[in-house]
Amino acid sequence: MLYQRGKGRICQKNGRQKRERTWWYRFRFAGRIIHESAKTTNINVARDAERTRRRELEEKYNRIKRRALPPSSAQAANAWLEGEKPHLAQRTHAIYHVALKCHLNPVLGSWLLCDVDSYAVKAYQARRKAEGAAARTLNKELQVLRQVLKRHKLWADLQGDVKFERENVNVGKALTQDEETALLKACESNQLLHTVVTLALNTALRKNEIRLLRWAQIDLFKRVLTVGKSKTEGGTGREIPLNAPAYAVLIRWAGRFRTSKPEDYLFPACEAAGIERKRPDSDRIDTSQPIRSWRSAWRAALKRAGLGIRFHDLRHTCITKIAESQASEQTVMAISGHLSRRMVEHYSHIRMEAKRAALDAIVTAPKPVAIPVGVHQNDNQQPKAEKTAVAN
Predict the structure, then answer these.
(1) Residue 187: how many CA atoms within 13 Å on its side-chain side?
(2) 7-11, 27-31, 283-287, 293-297: least confident range
């Protein structure tokens, strides 16, 4: 049933004033009265609105779904990432975005999502392996694909046939003293890189923890650094004392930013500003934004030093040196920000030099045992003359 309700409004139409009122519809469905406004003054639109509303209720009540074209893999993946964005950390979102944009969508993006089967996934794995992708990287991409398929209730048919790659959990390494010296020497020509590498080697900070440092987190008088938002709950807000090398490079770096504010970043955005030079282009430096990366400078330094390591191995090196110094587990966990002994063991690689020194320390010259005259272990070890005297 359709009817008009309310006083409406007066409007001019064909030179005459006319009062227009809003149409409402009312009908009974499943024992209830549906009484709603059509939000229109046109009776034909109101009649269509009533029919559409009744049809919508009938379909929901009878669980009838309208047919729709299945989405492509790229459409489904992009929609999933957009929906998950509020619930993901910034770094995690960036990793998933790269996995979709650079790898998954170029290969599977044109496929209908319902056509992505186990054979397609296995072919994708083989292709990425041939390209030299690491097991961990490939597993990250498969995790993204799995979440997209789960959203559309398609993963259950594949999970028994799709196998994730076996990851090497011992990829980290601790640098030897010679390697550490060579790396620092290779970084001397770039003050930015020398500062971040020295900090990583002497504070066990992660790359992003260093990249997002602000001057408010550095207390040069107390020689303490406070970590901001970290990867783990135990890592956020931890305080790390600055040893001599870390303190020295921060003092040197602070001399380049004498007008910095507490909220400014230690390592600001510096696109083509030459921040590593003695006289950078200050107009191109934005202290309100953090630097995006120092990847190019890092790779050049590794090439000069003749090393093949990750930046994260600097954290492994620092934690290893702390463990070799006989520091307690609680101390190592407080500095590294770990919450479990298992993670401490994963990051500490006791080096051969430390093992050799520990074993050499227990080696001492054997001391001769002095046995007093006349004292014997038992009667059978007494000289024959003594035995005869005792018998008489």
Answers:
(1) 25
(2) 7-11
Confidence band (pLDDT; 50, 70, 90) for 326? confident
Range list of H helices, the chain: 43-61, 73-84, 90-98, 105-108, 118-130, 135-151, 177-187, 191-203, 207-211, 244-254, 295-305, 313-324, 329-336, 341-347, 352-361, 384-391
Q: Is the whole-model pTM more than 0.70?
A: no
Domain regions of the chain by residue span: 2-61, 73-151, 177-354
Amino acid 350: pLDDT: 66
The residues, any chain, with a CB within 8 Å of residue 150's CB and separated by 6 or more, are none
How many CB atoms sit inside 10 A of residue 373's CB?
Answer: 5
177-354, CATH topology level: hpI Integrase; Chain A (1.10.443)
For the stretch 64-114, pLDDT in tens is 877 777 889 999 999 999 999 999 888 889 899 999 999 999 999 999 999
Q: What is the DSSP string of 152-187?
A: TT-STTTTTT--PPPP-TT------HHHHHHHHHHH
Phi and psi of 176, rounded to 5°? -75, 170
Give the list of residues 6+ apart from residue 208 with CB closer than 8 angstroms, or none: 91, 231
pLDDT digit string, tens, across residues 251-260: 999 888 888 8
Q: Within a 10 A sphere around the Cβ of 276, how many other Cβ atoms?
A: 17
